[in-house]
Design brief:
about 300 residues, mainly beta, Immunoglobulin-like, 6-stranded mixed sheet, 22 strands, about 35% strand
Length: about 300
């Protein structure tokens, strides 16, 4: 008679009882694409790649754990509809997020590339739910255009423990039933469509410190800029987060036409000057609004403050 070890018996029982999930096991719950504030569940159609955000778990009218992902860390990727072409261009490690015990996304934890902006989701905000932009702040460069004639994309999410390959790489070829390191059996997916050929622009924000005579003393590194887009959503960007070689600057790309407001934190330092596209704005102030339309040059805003501690 064939004998089984005690360890093998316990391992089998744990799987049967659902107390152990081996790598590659099916994942419960769901993911979907949405807007930055999570106001539309499974929106599916977007004007720009930069409008697409990832969310998961319950909708606003569902119980807190309805369709929630298991707690833990996940990677995400964007591909064409059949998963053959990888469209994400940053390392897998930069496409990482955390799901809390409540089954909702609560943190973007990516490293190794330009940050992916996040939004505060209106779906169960009491749980700290966030949304994560599928493209990082270099959008629309990241991610690539789909080869699908209908403008269809697919987003994937898989547990970190189920990922196959090296997260420091952008792409991880793998065998059948696996797409770029994401095993089909262990991943959640959702399709969405982006209207092609939408005009976009890049906004560059610069922070400089000067003396009382206007001579530049130094740049403002890791300095926050709050950008409110035409839909009323505000995201904060920090100088240097885009990997820019220009000290004290940050560029946000993939923005679409409309009115934008830029606000910098100057709670301590007096405002010295404000320049928009090389033109001095008077009186200088810590906040500036502008309208961008297709065909206009990419805008640049430079805020200068007097460093009273220099």
């Amino acid at each position: 008679m064939k004998r089984y070890s005690t360890v093998a018996i316990i391992f089998t029982l744990l799987i049967v009882l659902g107390q152990f999930s081996p790598a590659g096991a099916a994942v419960s719950g769901a993911i979907f694409t949405t807007t930055a504030d999570g106001s539309v569940v499974n929106a599916n159609h977007y004007a720009s790649k930069c409008d697409v955000y990832l969310n998961g778990g319950p909708g606003s009218n569902a119980p807190a754990k309805a369709a929630g992902l298991p707690a833990g860390d996940y990677f995400f990727q964007v591909t064409d509809p059949n998963g053959q072409a990888l469209l994400s261009t940053d390392p897998v490690s930069n496409r990482r997020f955390t799901v809390s015990a409540s089954g909702v996304m609560t943190a973007y934890t990516g490293v190794g590339g330009p940050v992916h902006p996040t939004g505060i989701s209106q779906d169960h905000p009491e749980l700290g739910t966030i949304t994560i932009q599928l493209a990082n702040i270099t959008c629309p460069t990241d991610f690539l255009d789909t080869t699908n004639n209908g403008g269809v994309y697919k987003v994937w999410a898989t547990p970190v423990a189920s990922f196959v390959g090296n997260p420091a790489l952008v792409d991880n070829p793998c065998g059948n039933g696996c797409s770029h390191g994401f095993m089909n059996s262990a991943s959640k997916t959702d399709n969405f469509k982006v209207q092609p050929n939408t005009a976009t622009f890049c906004l560059t924000m610069v922070k400089q410190f000067v003396n009382s005579s206007g001579a530049i003393l130094h740049s403002g590194n890791s300095w926050p800029f709050a950008v409110t887009d035409p839909s009323g959503v505000t995201n904060t960007f920090y100088t240097g987060d885009d990997g820019s070689l220009t000290p004290g600057s940050v560029s946000v790309c993939g923005l679409v036409a409309g009115i934008y407001t830029v606000k910098e934190d100057n709670s301590i330092y007096p405002v010295y000057s404000l320049t928009f596209n090389g033109i001095s704005i008077s009186p200088p102030q810590p906040v500036y609004s502008f309208r961008w339309v297709a065909g206009n040059p990419d805008p640049s805003v430079v805020f200068q403050n007097v460093d009273i501690f220099y």
